[in-house]
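Model it.
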Amino acid sequence: THTALVGQPGCGASTLLRLIAGTLRPTSGDAILGQRRVNALKPARRPVLLAGPEPGVPLRWSVEHALVAAVRSRSMDREDRHREMTLAAARWRLDALLSRKIRTLSSTEATLVEIARIDLLRPAVLLADRLLERAGAAVRGSLADELYRALRVHGTTVISAPASRDELAFTDRIAVLD
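Modeled.
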């Protein structure tokens, strides 16, 4: 499923995503994923990936390095990892950018790298905090469509704070925060 958290600026959507991810600790109450209370779990032990508009890897890395690092986290042999990385680079139109450093990419290109990383990581739960915010307005809708279709195929649950109204068309539920 895909649930979008919407509301006025400052309504707490980003804060809620960070509480679920474990990068913020609740002052009271519990964070529960499925049937499991996860307050005491370290962020790295939670079955979630928090992704935002900024790349989740060092800017000095090349695009290829970022994709290889993502696919290495999955248990598969070297040949399969290489095949998966090559397919993701082609799917997200990154073939020509593989040798470039992330810091030299346009904002839309950097967003594509982050989307390809998410596709390769295949998280159980994706917490998308304005993930497509830096992508150009002309491509944001098509990127959202491609990304959220791929995540449905992988069986990923998505909780997002969308960057634009365009993304709301790809959600199953909308929670309005006040």
